[in-house]
Amino acid sequence: MLKGIPKILSPQLLKVLCEMGHSDRIVISDGNFPAESMGKDAIVIRCDGHNVPELLEAILEVFPLDTYTEKPVTLMEKVPGDTVETPIWDTYREIVKKYDARGEAVVGNLERFAFYEAAKTAYAIIATGESALYANIMLQKGVI
């Protein structure tokens, strides 16, 4: 056990967060995301019993967001015409505001298939049991 480290951050996840360098990206995916096929060149970490907001909060306690890019937090856009509601995005924005002085301005969107392509280049993908739709989020690491 370590002091000051959120308990939800497993040793494997902490190791990955430490290994990541400036501008590396990590995806926290919902339960529908094809983490294993997208993560063929990434480290895939299974966190099936957890939801994205609790992991996002814990990660941002120790993970600096990139200050050299305008939008170091990326959400997957809804497919045009899809009527799914995305209240989880508001939750993400509130969490990000707690950990980055730029607030929700650091949150951007990426078209669904462009998000998939970006995810293929991520350093790691965290596969969660999140049941909300369009709940995938990508973080770009900054410096301390």
From TrEMBL:
It catalyses: alpha-L-fucose = beta-L-fucose; beta-D-ribopyranose = beta-D-ribofuranose. Pfam families: RbsD_FucU (PF05025). One of its GO terms (biological process) is fucose metabolic process. The keyword Isomerase applies. InterPro entries: RbsD-like_sf, RbsD/FucU_mutarotase, RbsD_FucU. The keyword Isomerase applies. One of its GO terms (molecular function) is D-ribose pyranase activity. Transmembrane segments: none annotated. Keywords: Isomerase. PANTHER family: FUCOSE MUTAROTASE (PTHR31690). This is Fucose isomerase.
